[in-house]
């Protein structure tokens, strides 16, 4: 039965959906147009956005359908990613196109989305943030972040060890197939690191380590101690560096790659971040950790999207596009992160916290938003969600 499933999965993957869509929409043969890659990206380039989106949906469905077939035939979980791989092989070497095809990224994404929906959503959000930050390097972002999804899936029991090995094989297969793209992405990544703003964003993203790793492994008490001690140390240094010039010079030199000029004599964003985080984690779990994730990603999206696409200023130099992106990132990150936790918060509670984050990001200019966003989100989540979680 397993071999039948693998053979049928290959045939599912071999259906040249992108080529069919491109031909129907623009009369284009992807084998000789654009990048000559028979995939959704080339369909977008050669036949337009609508064709590209339809091609992406069709190619993504290949990986999902292969897993559905394996489940319907009663195969155990380790066979599921293997059937998805057969579909990807069919996509890459289609018997209907003289054994030519695409890389298989969309088919792999479809398999992951069906097999690990929450983990895939989390990685998708992080990869989108990566793309916004570096202006590209999409495949490198996937290669760097997919292991996180596999580890989370194993810890939550979403995958057996055998299935996890199969998922790693799937990811590795696509990355090897796209090795040329990875080399280009590495150059893009290295060039982006020359920007102080990019380095600063990476430094700020390191704050996700606390709610995403420390909290799930060591619990709320450890998270609180880290922020309480971190805030105390940061503010002792803030006071001390105003008395001793050499200490201030040392700290400025240490943080120069990620700092701003205003922080030389003003309060640093790190001090504001730890104080804001310390206030946020006072609230009972899961409100503080969820708020930290929302604030970290939403603040970055507001700046990155506002700078890239912002056209309509509405308040204190903030754009509608940037604020809308802030709201979207806060809502999406809160919803996905909360769903991965044992204590799940409903969407309307998350939406309230996201609105507060977006308003705070618009109202507060400069580094002080690092102090306000996480506590404001934590309070809103707690106020509207406490009766659901704790019955009060």
Written overview of the protein:
The protein is mainly alpha-helical. It is 75% helix and 1% strand. It has three domains: 1-115, no CATH class; 116-193, no CATH class; 196-390, no CATH class. It has helices spanning 2-14, 17-26, 40-47, 49-72, 79-92, 105-115, 117-134, 138-156, 161-177, 179-192, 196-205, 209-218, 220-241, 245-255, 269-280, 287-309, 320-340, 347-363, 369-389, and strands at residues 313-315, 318-319. A two-stranded antiparallel ribbon has the order 1-2. A hairpin with a 2-residue loop joins strand 1 (313-315) and strand 2 (318-319). The protein is globular and about 75 Å long. The mean pLDDT is 86.
Can you give me a brief rundown of this structure?
The protein has helices spanning 2-14, 17-26, 40-47, 49-72, 79-92, 105-115, 117-134, 138-156, 161-177, 179-192, 196-205, 209-218, 220-241, 245-255, 269-280, 287-309, 320-340, 347-363, 369-389; strands at 313-315, 318-319.
